[in-house]
Structures are given as C-alpha cells and as structure tokens.
Write a structure and sequence with these properties.
The structure is a single chain. The chain is α/β, with parallel strands linked by helices. The chain folds into two domains: 87 residues, no CATH class; 190 residues, Rossmann fold (3-Layer(aba) Sandwich), CATH 3.40.50.1110. The protein is built from twelve helices and five strands. The chain has a five-stranded parallel beta sheet, sandwiched between helices. Helix 1 crosses helix 3 and helix 7 runs parallel beside helix 9. The longest helix has 21 residues.
C-alpha cells in the first residue's frame, strides 16, 4: 500500500530527529566546561573541570535508550530540545580539538580509585555500549568493577587512554568491548588491520602489566542512524570471527555477546535494543550473565 504524504513527512521527520540525536550522542558526551578556563601546552592540570555527563543527561539517555520501548519522533524532539543536550553539545564542541582521546573524562575518577587501599577487580573499557551499561545496571559497577566507557569512541581513542584508564588502576582483569564506532567510521575511515592493531595493542599493554584480558564481540547492528550509508552486518561478522580466532590463538577469554543478541539477519532485535545499536535493559541482562561467566572463568 502506498504511503500517504503525511506518512512520508512523518517518516522523514523521524529520520531527521534520529540522525540529529545519534550524531550528538556519539560525539563524546562531555559537560560543564568553561572556554575561558582552557589550559595551553604542558601543564600540571590539563582538565579544568570534571568532565562527566550530568545526572540529568544520564536520565535522558536512560529514558531514550535503556528503558525498553519504541522510540517516537516526539520523544526524539524532546531530547533534541532539552537544555541538558544543549550543554553537552556546547561542551563537546569546545573539547573536540583539546582532548581527542578523552583523557580528561576519567582523570578525577581515576585519582579517586588510586586513593583507595585496594585496586578494582575489573575495568570495563569501551564506548557508549559500555558507558550506558552503568546507567542500566549501576549495581554491577560496584567499585570492584569500574566503568571506563566513553560514547562515540573508536579503538584508536581507547588505545591512547588505555594506560591511564586501565593499566594505572592495576585491575586484575580488563574487559574490552569495542568496534561499533570503528565500523561506523566515527573518527574517519580505517582498515580492518587498523582495528586489529588497536585491539592487539590494548591486549599487549594489559598482558605486559599482568592484567587478564577478556575481549568481547562487537554487538549486532543492521544500520547506524548517524551513518545510514554504512552497511555494518558483514563487517561486524568478519571482525567478530577474527576476534574469536585471535583470542583462541592467544589463549584470551572471549565473550560472544553477538550470538546471544543478534537476530537472523544480523540485526539487534527490537526487544533487546530501542535503536538497533545500543542494548536496552533486556539486552544488558543477557550481557551481564555472559560477562559474569567470562570474568569468573579460571585464568588460562
């Protein structure tokens, strides 16, 4: 049946709202920065203020992506018009050229971890899928398990901050979940070998410092709303096959989220993801069970 003019307009409006929302949310969600306070050069404190997203913004993301439901155009418009998002956008523009790898994001939090008498058991390194996990399941990240996910990041950015956000914290285990944004090209085009090199380098850094490595598969996605021209299914499958083989060769723990989450066409089913890329509460419940099994497995 042909769509009415009204339906076509609504569809375009929905796609435009989604593209605006996702393009903003994958840019590294930083808040509370003052342009006048930006330091220059080699300084004692390159991070003028705490760069964690606000609790209010976290609530918006939770309502949009974490709580299972069908996202509407009206909901996306409310998100786009929110003052919390406006603050994040302004901060991101300010910091885009100042801190590409996101080293300031967890600098204060890392200092607090290092001030404790004991080190964390596990550090979760990743992008928005890891970052949102804290919103979905805060009890999981209880201090012994710490979250170092930054929305929108690729493996290149994670590699730069890996020593500060993982090695320096002296965890027993690191859980690396990365690749969605590499496939999307968030920091520009790259080869599959670039992705592999970044994963291998993070593994090398961890193992050289006595840290057990758990490598996760890339979760499913049939499309990216902020990169509609990218067709991610075959690339995600190929990279996951390499990750599995690499982990087997290196005797590294591999956790296969993809097989547990993917639909028959390589999509992220609606009951497990509101937007087809990020898990919702149902998706994270599955992931937690798999993660706990991988983290508790006997070290090989």
């Amino acid at each position: 049946m042909a769509k009415s003019v009204e339906d076509r307009i609504t569809g375009k409006r929905m796609r435009r709202a989604r593209n605006q929302a996702w393009s903003l949310m994958v840019c590294g969600l930083l808040a509370g920065l003052d342009a006048a306070a930006q330091p220059i050069g080699i300084v004692e404190n390159p991070c003028p203020s705490e760069s964690m997203p606000s609790a209010a913004f976290g609530k918006l993301v939770t309502e949009l992506l974490v709580e299972p439901h069908t996202i509407t155009a009206e909901e996306l418009e409310r998100f786009n018009d929110s003052p919390e998002l406006a603050e994040v956008v302004a901060a991101n523009r300010l910091y885009a050229g100042q801190d590409w790898p996101g080293l300031c994001r967890f600098r204060s939090a890392n200092a607090r971890v290092l001030s404790r008498s004991s080190s964390p058991r596990v550090v979760f390194m990743g992008d928005s899928i890891t970052e949102n996990w804290q919103l979905a399941d805060p009890e999981f990240f209880d201090g012994r398990v710490v979250n170092r996910g930054i929305s929108g990041q690729t493996t290149a950015q994670m590699l730069v901050r890996f020593r500060a956000d993982v090695v320096a914290l002296r965890p027993r285990i690191v859980h690396i979940l990365a690749g969605t944004n590499d496939v999307a090209g968030n920091t520009g085009p790259m080869t599959t070998q670039d992705f592999k090199n970044n994963i291998m380098s993070m593994v090398d850094l961890a193992q050289a410092n006595g840290i057990t490595v758990v490598v996760a598969s890339i979760p499913p996605a049939a499309s990216f709303t902020w990169r509609p021209e990218v067709k991610p299914v075959p690339t995600i499958k190929a990279l996951n096959e390499w990750l599995r083989e690499y982990c087997a060769q290196q005797h590294i723990r591999y956790v296969d989220y993809y097989s547990a989450l993917a639909g028959s066409a390589g999509e992220f089913p609606a009951e497990l993801s509101n937007d087809g890329v990020h898990p919702n509460l149902n998706g994270y419940a599955i992931m937690r069970r798999l993660a706990e099994n991988a983290l508790s497995a006997r070290r090989r």
